[in-house]
Structure formats: C-alpha cells, structure tokens
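TICKET #2291
ISSUE: user wants both folds in one file
ATTACHMENT 1:
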Amino acid sequence: MSTAHMLASPVVLALLVVAASAQLPQGWRADLQVDAQSYTPDSAINAPAVREKVLAQGFFNLLYSSERLRFGIRYEAYFNPLLGIDPRYEGNGIPYRFIQYRGDQFDIIIGNSYEQFGSGMILRTYEERSLGFDNSIDGVRLKARPLEGIQLTALFGKQRAFFGLGPGIVRAADLDVELHQLTIGNNKVFDLPFALDLGASVVSKYQPAADPILRLPENVFAYATRMSLTTEQWNLYAEWAYKVNDPQQTNHNSFNSGNGLYISTSYSGDGIGLLLAAKRIDNMDFRSDRGAIGNVLNINFLPPLTKVHTYRLFTLYPYATQPYGEYGIQGELTLTLQRGTLLGGPYGTTVTINYARIHSIDSTKIDEFTYRSTWKPGKVLFFQDFNVEIQRTWSRLLKTTLTMVALAYNKDVIEVKTGYGTIYPLAFVLETQYKLGSRSALRMELSHMSVRGDMGSWTFALFEYTPISNLYLTVFDEWNYGNDDPKKRFHYPAVSVTYVIGGTRIAVGYAKQRAGILCVGGVCRLVPASNGFSLNLTSTL
C-alpha cells in the first residue's frame, strides 16, 4: 500500500470536515483528530524500520444533542496504528455509537457508554487515545433519580476490544446518596452544615471457564463503599473495595481475593493548601477477559498516588500503578506567599512541596496459587518522589518556575526487568515565560537530570517563540550526555510549528524520539524510539 493510500482515509476526512465546519445545523457537533508519523530507521537509537514508512490514525466524532435526546458515532481509522499503539487496532470502522434519552427522572443509553463508580477501583470505563486505550461498555446503561439527592445507576454489556468485543459480560450497579441534598416532597431530610455523600457499588464479570486443570470461577463479584465529606475548607474522601478470587494471566492464576483502600483529605485556607492521601492495593487487577494483558479489557482503574510530572526529563522515570500489591502515602503542601513581602515579591510567589512513597505489601507465599498478606508495608521500595516547585511572577512580563525532583525508581519492578535495581535520579528545571508584547511571547525550559547507572545523566533545552497569539514555533534538544557508553551519548532534537485558528489546531514537526514509557494517570505504555516527521490535527466544529 502506498503512502498516499495510507494517509488518504484520515487526511481526506480531515479536509472534508474542516470544509464543512460552517454547515452543521443547530444541535449538531463534530470533532476530529488526525495523527500521522513518518519513520526512518536509525540503528544508533534503535529506531526500527517500518514497512509502510508512514503510519496514520484518525478519529471523527459526530454528536447530536437536544433537550431530551442525544446520539453519536465515532469513526476510527488506523492505517496502521502509530508505533507504541497496540497493532490490533489495525483497520477502520465505527466501534463507538450510542443513543441516549434524558428524562426528568430517568437517563438511558443504548450502545457504548463510559462510566465511573467512585474513584474507579471496581469500575471505570474511559478513553485515552495517547495510550491506545478504550474500554467502553457496549450494552445498556440506566440512571434513575427517584428523589433529589439519590441516583441509581445500572449497566450491563461487553467491553470494547479493538474493533470487536471482549468475551466477558460486565454487570454493575451503583447507589449514590447526597445526604445534604436529600429531599422528600419540598422538604430536605437533613439540615447539614456540610456536604456528605455516601455511595455503594457492585460489579460482576461473567466469562465461561474452559481450563482443563484449574477450576476457575466464571462469575467474579466485586463491591465498594465510599464516603465524601466537604466543608468550606476541608474535604475527606474514603473508599474501600473488595473483589473475590479472580485467577487470570496477569496475576499468575492467583486464587487470592483482592481489596483496595484509598483515603485522602485536603485543606484549603488563606495562603495555604494541604493534601494527605494513603492507599493499599492487593490483587486488584480486574478484567473482563482473564487472558488479557497490557491495557486491554480493564474493568477498573486504580488511582495513582504520585504527582504526574509533565516536564520532559521527569517523564524518563514515571511510576506505573502496581495492581498486584502496593502500599503508598502522599503529602502535598502549597504556600502562597503574600504580595509585597520580601519572599512574596511585588506579584506573589507560590511554593509547592510534594512527597510520595510507594512500597510493596507485606506478604508470604503459601503455595503456587495463594499467599498471605498483612496490613503492614512490605520491605521493597517501589518508588519515592520528593519535589519542590517555586512559581514567581517578577513583573507583568516575566514569570519563572523552578522545580527540583529527587526520585527512587525501582526499575526491576516498575518496568518488569532484571539487573537494574533502584535508580536515584535528581533533576532540576527552570522554566521562564516572557511577554514580548500583547500577542507575542517567549518560553524557555532548561533541565538537567543526574543519574548514576542506567542510561546516565541527561540535559534538555527548549525554546518556544509565539510571534502572534495563535502561532507557536518550538525547538528543543534532549541529550544523553552522561551515558557510560560514549557511543550512546545521543542527541534527540525536535522542531515543530503549531497553528491554532478557531477550534482547529495543526502541528507539524520533526523529531528523534527516545524509547521510554508514556504514563497517563498511572496507566502506562511503552513508546519505541523513532525518527521522522509528524502531523497532528484536532478540530472542533
């Protein structure tokens, strides 16, 4: 297949939709995304040869909405999926479509839907294109509001698996009660000086068992309870989840039950913010196919307990949630220093201090299929992150952000490798934003990461020039100057041009991309090295 043919479907679709942007009637909305990448083999950085030379994928959503009725479809085309996206997405079709009726007391969806109960520990369906992830449920979802302050949710169906459906049937229900809003007739039941929300959820997965040796459960049941209390300055959230034994490929056919506890509290006052959180996860990988691996057919989502870093060097060592057992704590303190003081300066300064530590759970193996765990943290350190961020506005034109991050990263556990042990990166970044005029600006990012062992130390420099408010010119270079092997001290340069007009954003560029792990919200995928040009287009009509 030629390059022209590979790009034809998503790119032609893009041009047609943009051209028709002014013709959508009232009630209709559309959005589009196209990602294309060329690939040049580069043996130095282990960028593989790609037979197609160019890979492209596109997404087109069309939605109609009125007061009571909504329906929509999403067309997807992968010719073929970008490297790092599961190759089983190859092809095109309409894997997402739904029709929804919204009444005063009932809300029903037939088709694909996304849903989350509580923090998601037993059910969360969502889409994350950057990870190649979509676990929507194709079936029926019903919400009922019999009283003000009470919502019932029930759903059943099968999960999306690329352009088909997984083998398991998911059935779920949730009750959410906002006691501070509970009303019978015209009278509130409780006169509370705070907001109190209670919830309970159940999820059941059915999949036929056909193992000739193991007696596998065909119905796997999970439940969760939660509570949220909010005052003017405080919030307290707690959730407990339990899942019966669920032997599957990812937990090596463990017959242990699973459980999870997540607790967080936050405070917001004059010039101060505080967050404290803790969680314990034990064997909580939950899928609608016991043979699935990777980011495929996940029913639940385990909320991360680490700060999500966005600066490029910091993403070299991201943490991936360990569903088979982790014990974590996190604390964050935010101080807003008063304007006009020595530390606050004339325009104010914000200091954020964050600490997170993730351990194994204390467990002892009993036999091939079971183990005993306690509520004590285990001895193995998975991850530790201590970071400080100082944001200061120096004038109406100049703003800086200085960040320091010190990590402990157990590569053997997080990346499922051997022989690396725990790595201790120390990184600094200085970001400077300077306004050149009412519509133009300059942004600079300078970073350094010191690493002993592994790939060695790194440095990074980025410059972004905005000559007008909707045009961005970006150039950066990432240099692995401290690699123990002088032949692997590679530069990873990139240049891009981004143009935004109305609801449309177009970016074209060239980059050498290092191999690594891309994480979004504690869910990760491996991104291979690449060398080539890229096109990214998004548009909302």
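ATTACHMENT 2:
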Amino acid sequence: MTRPRKRRDWTTPLLLTLSVHLMAFTLFINHRLFTMFEQPRKGDHITRFGGVEGVDPADEKEKDEGAAPGPQAEENQPSKASVSEALREEQLPQPQPPATPARPVEGPSKPETTDSRTLAERLAASHGGSTVGESSVNLPGGGVTGMRGEGRRQDGLRKHGGGSDTEDAVELGLAWLAKVQDHDGKWDSDGYMVHYMPGATGNERYDEGVGMARNDVGITALCLLAFTGAGHDGRSGKYAANVRKARDWLLSRQRVEDGGFGLPTDTYRPTYYGVSLATLALCDLYLLTGDQKLRTPIQRAVYFLCDSQGDAGGWDYSQRYPGDDKWQRPERNDLSITGWAVLALTAAREANLDVPQDALRKAAELFTQQTRKDGEAIYANKGTREHQRGMGMLAVSNVCRRLLGEDRESEIQRKQRQRLDKLPPKWSEANELLGNNMYYWYYGSLALMVGRDAEGGEDRWRKWNIELKKTLLPHQVKSGPRRGSFDPYNDAWAKSGGGRLYSTAICILMLEIYYRYEPEYLRAHAKELAKLWE
C-alpha cells in the first residue's frame, strides 16, 4: 500500500522571497533619494525658504541702498587729519537709545505749585525721560525735535494738519534727493544733474537750476536735514546709507584746527551759511540718535560759531580760517545767516551741549536792534542789502526772537504774526527776493507752528497750512528724471545760489513741519531764556 503524497507548503518560501525583495527595493529607493541631492558647491551658499532662493546676505558685500552710483572722486576723499578719520563707525558700538512710549502722555500746561521742576523737565518726564536736566538727546525722535519717533509721526500729522498727501510728497522728494547724491555723500550744488543728465553741457546744467559751488557744505546739510526731518537717522531703513554718507562727508569737511567747516585746500570756501547749516544738521542727527561720537564735533562747531560772532551779535559771509591774520569780526550783521546760526545754537542747547549764554544774549540784542516797532526787520545793518526789509526777514526775526525766549504775547510777536497771516504762501509770487518766497514760507511755517495753540491765543496756523499745501503739492514734479523735485525757476533765493537742490530740500522741510517740531516743547525751552528780554 502506497503512502499518500504530502501536500507541499508554498506559503513560507513565498513570504520569505517577498520579504527579501521588499528589503532590496527599500534600499534601492533610499539610495536614489540620497543621490538626488546635489553636493554643495564651493562658493555662494544658496538659501531656500518655501521654494524661494536667494544668495545668503552674509556672503555679499554691504550695499548702500539709495546712494547714487559712481566712482569716488579723489578730491573728495576725507583728509587724514579730518574729524571723520578719527570717528570711523566700527570703532565704537552704536549706542542703543532708550525706548519711548508709542503714545506719549500730555504734560500739564501750567506749573504745579508743589513741583519745583521747570516745565521743560516735567514735559520730558511725561514723555518717558528723566526728571532732572533732561534734554531731547535722551529722547530720540521726541522732545523739541518733534514727533519723529516710532508711533508719534502719525500723531503729529493728525494734530497739525498733515496727511497721506503731504507724506507722499515727502517720500517723492527724498527719493529724488537720494538719486542725485554723490557717491562720497555730498550733494553737488552745480553738478547734481549729471546723475540723470550725463554729459550735460554748461548751458544745460544752468537751465536745470544750478547752485553755487561754495554752497556745497550748506546744501548738503540742508538735504541731510530733509532726511532727519522724516526720522531717517542712518541706522536702518532704505535711506540709512544716504544719511551716513552725508554725515561722514560733513565731518570730513570739518577742520581739526578750529571746528569750522571747509578745508583750506578747497577751491571754493563755504561761508557762515555752510557753517551754521552743517552745525544744525549734525545736531539734529545727534538729537535723533544720541550717538556720542557726534557730540565732540558738534561742540567744537558751536564754539567756533560763538567765537566768530560779531560784537553786535550777528554773522556775515566771510569765514575765519586758521592762520588768517586779516580776518576781523564782522561789522556787517546779516540777519539771514544769523537766523541759521541761532537755529543751530538753540538746537545745540536742546542737546545739552555747552552754548555760551553771552552768544545767545548778543543774538537777542541784534534781533532787537534790527527789528522795527512794526515788526519788520532789516536784512543787514550795512553793506549788501543795507537796511532792506521784507517778509522773509520778518519771519526769521519772529522765529529767532521766540526761540531766544521772547514772550509769545509780546507786542512785536503779535504784530509779526498778524503780518504773516496776511501773506500766506503763494507759488506765483515766489520771485520776490525779500518777500513771498520759499525762504519766507519756511520761516513763516516755523513761526506760526511755534505760535499756535497757546492758551487764550489765536491759531493762525490752520489757514497758513491750507495755503501751504495748495502751494507746494501741485507744483512738485510728478514725472521724468526730476520726479519729486521742486522747480527753482520762480524762486529768487533758489535762482541766486541754491538751485534745484535748495528748492527741493526746503520744500520737503516745510512738508515735515507736522512732526519735525513739537510746539509745546519749543515754548517750554524758549521760556527758560526769557531773562534775555527782561
């Protein structure tokens, strides 16, 4: 009898075979996946974020956003003996300013009998500062320097009548200034147009609206003020490089010997316009940043200004240079130059720098002597434009007398504001040398801004501001290579020495008035100088 054949079991070898094949397939897939990735190349590192590729910024050299391209001219290299050589940015760490509140608390309008602090000190404390000896330099973007800090700019626009239309104009203007800035940091008064008109002839450059070469220091300072006026301080943002380069160029033109601006080797020597504006611009930047590297250069510039002041309290064109034995203190007192000098000195005082009281006293005496009882002021006591009067001089007299401590309700202050109220800005009338022009609009804006909102007083600012916007906004160039600038052709001062750079910078400054200065602070600090008028 045959034994029945046993049925063969195929399950076990089949499962074993499948397992072996599965393991081999898995190893093959893993190998293919790893080999799909490209081995990193030597050189640029590629960063991938969500499918977006870009070169790692750490592998690129630092780029200057907004600065005009072009080779750096040898004659514009900073002198080895210049201040900027000793103040390189990498030598000291950038100081971190104290934080300021997003929406400051308004301080009391009248002194408390139980509080011995000055109004300025209490205002500083209410805005987040110290209660003793406080100044705007410890409140970047605040204090007398206005509402330029984070969270405050919109407050200034709402409070004083600005808006998106004025801010758009400011941005357009700054973009144009950035485009025509030289690679070394200056704004070239008579050569800026080569940035969009390469190879321009002499006549073409003249037709574009040229300034005077000796005004490069002053024009560069005015353009820098336009950037700091909008809160650009050189530390961050798209205009940081423009601010840093302008700062460094101005410092490179400061003399080691005496603190003045303009090197003895310069073909065209700047006047006291340039010295005053450079001091003001660097001081404004210092008030924004608290950068201690700027403190010594500004202090030296302040001492130079005060040492060069005429015996009667004013300044004239010709600047004193080291070793110039023929230079004498000016007997001609130019009210326009003196106005910029007073703005610089009062800004330095706000920055808690040493400003000799005697210099402020003499300046106050000069504005008393050169201002008539009806409020009009004379341009100069002798020489060029001797005893000429005009609204521009009236406006600068009003602002400087106020900053130097004259009471807002003095007879002269009231008469001057009444005169300003009757002649608001008007584009078609800007060709008057001492009348209705951009210079007058600038100082008139300051005067009526400082003079507004006082208890029981009239507010003429609202009417002026309406006319200011109607004058400036429609006349800003809206297209082409000049987009953002303001034509200088119908303005007497621009045609006689400032050019398109001057007209654009000073118009931007006017459109920044809403947050550039805080009237409450200005009045408080002016009150501390009231004794000059006793």
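RESOLUTION: both attachments delivered.
EXTRA DETAIL ON ATTACHMENT 2: Strands lie at 46-49, 52-55.
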